[in-house]
Design a protein that fits this description.
This protein is α/β, with parallel strands linked by helices. It has a single domain (2-182), classed as Diaminopimelate Epimerase, Chain A, domain 1. The chain has helices at residues 2-15, 34-37, 48-65, 82-93, 129-145, 149-165, 170-182, and strands spanning 39-41, 68-74, 103-109, 114-119.
């Protein structure tokens, strides 16, 4: 039951006008919770196979870089802008490591036909607003226009991951941050 309630709690929290904190105590070992699943398809836009392919790609990205990508679909923004919704959701879910702020949230609102790539400040030098806009316009939107939502999600996640994995400097920086945090 917790697995079914947690995504709903996170969605309700994200839809409020104030940033909210989602209580995920006890959910760390629950593979269906948003924190563990990495893909939450509340709008039912993805097959189980596509969700699994996305999860594997996201886990590969995290293993290679330490960066955290989360894909979230919602049926509706419930009157919010996509910017406010994604920012509140990202804060609620705690995507990215606090000391690095290296989370990326890929949000799609089905009914409003809106999407956004929200980037933590630790990655803004690599995945700029301009780069995120290009990924949306050149990769995701063309697939979505053709009705190929799974292709849009998967290719979008691939382009994001490829961009982050190509950075030659950050792995050394991350290692230093982790070393300091362990002390």
């Amino acid at each position: 039951m917790k697995a079914a309630i947690l995504p709903l709690v996170a969605l309700v929290a994200a839809c409020s006008s104030e940033p909210a904190v989602v209580n995920v105590v006890g959910a760390a070992n629950d593979n269906t919770s948003p924190q563990r699943s990495l893909v939450y398809d509340g709008a039912d836009m993805l097959s189980d196979a596509a969700e699994e392919r996305l999860r594997r790609r996201i886990l590969d990205l995290e293993a290679a870089t330490g960066d955290e990508l989360f894909v979230w679909t919602t049926p509706s923004l419930e009157g919010q802008t996509i910017e406010a919704y994604s920012l509140n959701l990202g804060r609620s879910l705690g995507i990215g490591k606090p000391e690095l702020d290296n989370g990326i949230l890929f949000v799609v609102a089905r009914d409003e036909r809106r999407l956004r790539i929200e980037v933590g400040s630790g990655l803004e030098g690599l995945l700029t607003d301009v780069a995120a806009g290009r990924i949306i316009r050149r990769t995701i939107e063309p697939a979505f226009r053709d009705g190929e939502f799974e292709r849009g999600f998967e290719e979008g996640a691939d382009v994001i991951a490829d961009l982050l994995e190509e950075d030659p400097v950050r792995p050394r920086y991350r290692s230093e941050v982790r070393r300091r945090a362990a002390q």
